[in-house]
Amino acid sequence: MSADYQVIDAVAVITLNNPPVNGLGLATRTAAVEGIRKAQDDAAVQAIVITGAGKAFSGGADIKEFNSPKALTEPTLHTLIRTAEECSKPVVAAIHSVCMGGGLELALGCHYRVALPGAQIALPEVKLGLLPGAGGTQRLPRVLGLETALNMIVSGTPAASEKLPALFDEVLPAGTDFAGLVQAAVAFANRIADVRPLPKIRERKVDYPNSEAFLQFSRNTVKSVAGPFPAPLECLETVAASVTMKFEDGLAFERERFLHLMQTTESKALRHAFFAEREASKVPDVPGDTPTRKIERAAVIGAGTMGGGIAMNFANAGIPVTLLETKQEALDKGLATIRKNYENTLKKGKLTQEKFDQRLALITGTLDYAEIGQADIVIEAVFEEMGVKEAVFRKLDEVMKQGAILATNTSTLDVDKIAACTSRPHDVIGTHFFSPANVMKLLEIVRGKATGSDVLATALALSKKLKKTGVVSGVCDGFIGNRMIEQYSRQAGFLLDEGCLPEQVDQAMEKFGFAMGPFRMGDLAGNDIGWYIRKRRAIEKPEIQYSKTADLLCELGRFGQKTGGGWYDYKPGDRKPYPNQQVNDMIVQHSADLGIERRPIADQEIVERLVYALVNEGAHILEEGIALRASDIDMVYLTGYGFPLFRGGPMFYADTVGLPNVLATIERLAKGRHGDAWRPAPLLVQLAAEGKGFNSR
Ligand code: NAI
């Protein structure tokens, strides 16, 4: 049973009991319906209270049942709500902590609602590209009014129970505990036990003078902020139906639009991302109960672009951190940048003075390794050169206490080789932050061949503490994200050689939904980073071809925004790109030097070449076991590279296009210029032949 039943003072108390948040899965729904029926049939029961055990009244639908036929098996959520509403004895919802989605819809079907203050009330379905499909869009406006209900449903944002007095018959005094809530709900139920007819929200009307004008105004606003997502507008139209239609018709309309949204790619993509984020923290051979090490003190080596941002992450999480540099000037510069970043946040009002002081106080600097020896984790973020990193790790091996985790922020270098310079390779791991490290959500956690399970489990737990999405990668050049982006950037370069200019490529990718096209991204990150990597590759893997345009750009000293210009020009304090004639001439001249006749290139070709370059490399990465699952690759791209969320990540996107279609395009490209870059990944070929997808292997 996943709901408990007891009778207190002639009131049946049904307690939903499906940890962690009393999701309304089939077993819980069945138990709740049986409880209501039992109470109805028991002459000794006057009224019913429904509440939730543990951490929630109910968080809504059981996510384990998403996309499964169980969600549609009787009793459905509709049936449960209808059973409560049609019960001949009063049903009181006793709400605390969390009352969201289907949980709130159930409460709206009850005759009365009693709540603790501070309970989080929401219909967040829009965040998964859906709308509340169990009467929420019809009942909430009838009780809270059109405007409040519309805002809640279109935004999905929670409100505290005490801020919604119209929703509740009683909000109890602050400090009341769960036992007090049940006691108060039972007392309330006894007080109203004889009141008839039973109040039903469905029988109310939504009063809003001139509602059509308000709805039209809201339509325009919602359209302008919804971007490519259809759900917010669908939410609005179903809420509008609560004004214009009879309750039953509105309910049928809500159902129809809900089922429509369930089938949209945008909702599928959002649900995919939702599950992908949860899956990413699971590593098959590192069970969830693997012991973790304590992280109470941290150190960061190198106070440059990344080191400073990484240190801020620790301070933001309340963990003291020491930055180590070789020279006082570099240390001062790094600490000053951190202070400036926090000052900007303070000025914007996003940080209180108290928090500002606390965070700065948690960050200290040193030039002396002796001062960091007691840290529980040290993250190295020095220059991307093996020799420098090896020297740092040899030193860390000497000074760090036993049990400390030794992490590297390298973007491309071999973590196993770095680990091999120490006498404790099991303590070594890669923690690859993304720039700006204090902002970007992604943390690639690189598992070396000797990395201990507890070290990996600790890094995963730390990523949560730092509010990052941790994704585990095996060791290879560039790990998941940068290894794939290299193929993407190579194609972007070839497109310049063949006929594009940077702005055409960027615009095509931004129209596809990327936050930034490849050339704007290069200007932001610094084109010199890729230049350095290509120089290394030219020695290690001379067979790999690149367009020379990026090197020519760097030879002009145009590294990007930090030098005032790269592929584009920039005005001080403005990130807007302005095309540069000299750069464009250089690109055209380079084509001539190569003997290439420039041709018009359609946006579709640009998108296919760049995105399928990611997909094909992603398939290699999956096949080699560098990524544990396709959805991990999608998480890397959604949280670290600005891949459009409504497309669900490169691997999910390929699945929606259909792998046979993706493969056919790749095979066609393999016959063109630089065809060697289009060797189809065997896994792609295999899945396409089997009619499967990357995410449904
Ligand atoms: P950076 O050049 O801004 O900073 C490196 C800092 O390390 C400098 O302040 C330098 O004085 C210091 N340093 C050099 N040798 C040192 C030593 N032996 N001991 C102590 N400090 C030393 O470099 P950035 O961009 O912060 O990169 C650092 C690492 O992070 C590299 O491995 C890089 O590949 C990686 N990374 C960089 C990203 C980026 O977008 N910049 C993104 C993700 C990773």
From TrEMBL:
Keywords: Fatty acid metabolism, Isomerase, Lipid degradation, Lipid metabolism, Lyase, Multifunctional enzyme, NAD, Oxidoreductase, Peroxisome. Residues 298-473 form the 3-hydroxyacyl-CoA dehydrogenase NAD binding domain. One of its GO terms (molecular function) is enoyl-CoA hydratase activity. Residues 478-570, 606-692 form the 3-hydroxyacyl-CoA dehydrogenase C-terminal domain. GO terms for biological process: fatty acid beta-oxidation. Pathway: Lipid metabolism; fatty acid beta-oxidation. It comes from the Bacteria. It catalyses: a (3S)-3-hydroxyacyl-CoA + NAD(+) = a 3-oxoacyl-CoA + NADH + H(+). InterPro entries: 3-OHacyl-CoA_DH_NAD-bd, 3HC_DH_C, 6-PGluconate_DH-like_C_sf, ClpP/crotonase-like_dom_sf, Enoyl-CoA_hydra/iso, NAD(P)-bd_dom_sf. Pfam families: 3HCDH, 3HCDH_N, ECH_1. It is found in: Peroxisome. PANTHER family: 3-HYDROXYACYL-COA DEHYDROGENASE-RELATED (PTHR23309:SF51), 3-HYDROXYACYL-COA DEHYROGENASE (PTHR23309). This is 3-hydroxyacyl-CoA dehydrogenase.
